Amino acid sequence: MSQSLTSLPVEKDEVGRKIDYPGLTYAPINEQGVVLLFGMMSDDLGFSVEAIRSGFPDALVVDYRANPNRGVKKYIEFEFQSSHFSRQKGHDPKKCNIIICWEHDWANHPKDIEIIQLKSLIQNLKHAESEQIAHARISGGAVKTKPAKPDYETSWNARIDWVHGDTRALVRKLTERLETQLPGLRHQPRYRWLSFYRGEPFVRKNECATLLIGRKTVRLSIRVNPQKFSDPSGIFKPMVGFFYPKNTERRGHISFANLDAAVSAAKSAYQGLD
Questions:
Q1: 5 alpha carbon, distance to own chain's centre
Q2: Does residue 64 lie in a domain region?
Q3: Global confidence as pTM
Q4: Does 2 fall in a domain?
Q5: Residue 168: how many CB atoms within 10 A of its CB?
Q6: What is the CATH number for 224?
Q7: How many domains does the chain contain in total?
Q8: Deepest of 39, 72, 144, 258, by most Cβ within 10 A of its Cβ?
């Protein structure tokens, strides 16, 4: 009798260390994992993927990091370690703009090629967000950030200007619907997110939801009472506990198509906190 897929064991050497990035539990251990992780992060980083192929270079993207209204097409090569690029025949540095890797270990890489190391991005993201969350727990206030990052990486107001117009429209619609359906709900920008509270004061114990946006994506994290939460649509998936305590956080991708169901689930979560 064949073994069911759900019961197949996962060997220790088949997964990397835990990173708990939304939608991906473990770090990449090969090039395919790098492709997957970049695909999940691309919109948040300011890239729009136009094509992925088997030949060199691996992908064509539009880079909106410098200008949200006018992107630049660039060619990308995926590698687990950046030095793998130099070991492969036919990889002409002049035909590649960016190397996306998990680990950057190529000290003397061509200076015309940008290296994006996902490992450090994940570490920096967790560190920055952890600092913001820790500070919010203490004071509920804003934190001064290092000026090295672009404004859209540290400020909600800058980020809402940076995103695609359809994203802004969805954020406005979602916010309006939540305020209408959830009595007493208030919101306030915090770092690069929009935090929702069950009335004032804007402190940790009153926080009940957090809105996260990429150029073309909208995600909502909600605080739930697992015993009272209902989400028949299955939009909101369990999180390990990033914004809210373990077992009380759910996160989902929001679109105009699932807006009604998302608001209904958020209402269930809100009411279950009583």
A1: 28
A2: yes
A3: 0.63
A4: no
A5: 15
A6: 3.90.1150
A7: 2
A8: 258
